[in-house]
Structures are given as structure tokens and as C-alpha cells.
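User: Could you go from structure to sequence for me? I need the amino acid at each position, not a summary. C-alpha cells:
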């Protein structure tokens, strides 16, 4: 029950803040070595971080100086869940078993090859490595909640 309420709250927040989250037509696909995972529930948001490796040095008689660095690697993070059943207006088809998604993503992380992340309706189409993949069950629905962090390869 708590999972459904949490899920409905996310859906309402997404509708209210239309434009600030991902639209319902947005698809996230993670692929590796000829296999792919299409995330069945789009996350309400994702975060892209771009590092520029600037540094500060202290020079006698001048003080601190900002040294401009080169572009670092992009990091993308998002959280969602793998549903154990179809939810009306959220998951249009009966999804695979939540743990089949978990197994596939874990196998991608262990292959020693870069993956590709594509998010439709955005400019994100990057080769990435899986830095972290955390998952858990929160209630008795058997839905598996996850967060993933991907780094540009």
C-alpha cells in the first residue's frame, strides 16, 4: 500500500510540475554487448553532472589563483523502480520480473565493457560505465526500487 501511495505521489508531482520531470513518452535504454534494458518506469527526474577540473593554487605575493581545467567526465544519476505488476497509466504492459532487470544490469556492470545510455527526447546518448547500482524492496508489493549512477566512458 505504501508503495502505491508513494508512486501516486510521484505521478501527481510529475503532472503538477509538467516540464520539470521526464515526460511520459520518454524512454531510457541501457545497452551493453548486444543486450539492452528499457526501464519500464521513467524516473521522475535525472541528474547530469559535468566536472571541469578547475583548481585553486596559492601564489606568494598574489594569493589564490583559479586555474581553469579541462572538461571531466559526465555523470548521470537517476532512481525509479521495477514494478512487479502493471500499474494503470504508468506501465502499459506487464513488465518482466523485477529481478530479471536487476540481474541484467548487474551482468552489464561485470562485463568489463562500456554500456550505452540513450534517453529519448533529450540529447543524452552516451557510452557509460556503471559506477553504482543499488536496489531494495520497500514494502510487500515485490516492486524493486533502484538508483543507478553512470559515468561517461
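Assistant: Here is the amino acid at each position, in order:
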Amino acid at each position: 500500500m505504501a508503495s502505491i501511495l508513494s508512486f501516486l505521489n510521484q505521478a501527481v508531482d510529475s503532472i503538477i510540475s509538467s516540464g520539470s520531470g521526464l515526460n511520459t513518452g520518454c524512454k531510457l535504454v541501457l545497452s551493453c554487448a548486444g543486450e539492452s534494458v528499457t526501464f519500464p518506469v521513467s524516473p521522475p527526474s535525472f541528474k547530469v553532472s559535468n566536472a571541469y577540473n578547475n583548481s585553486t593554487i596559492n601564489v606568494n605575493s598574489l594569493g589564490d589563483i583559479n586555474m581553469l581545467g579541462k572538461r571531466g567526465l559526465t555523470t548521470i544519476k537517476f532512481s525509479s523502480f521495477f514494478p512487479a505488476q502493471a500499474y494503470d497509466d504508468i506501465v502499459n504492459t506487464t513488465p518482466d520480473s523485477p529481478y530479471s532487470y536487476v540481474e541484467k544490469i548487474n551482468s552489464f556492470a561485470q562485463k568489463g565493457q562500456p554500456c550505452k545510455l540513450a534517453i529519448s527526447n533529450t540529447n543524452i546518448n552516451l557510452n557509460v560505465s556503471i559506477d553504482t547500482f543499488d536496489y531494495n524492496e520497500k514494502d510487500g508489493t515485490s516492486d524493486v526500487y533502484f538508483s543507478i549512477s553512470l559515468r561517461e566512458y
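One structural detail worth keeping in mind: Residues 11-23 have pLDDT under 50 and may be disordered.
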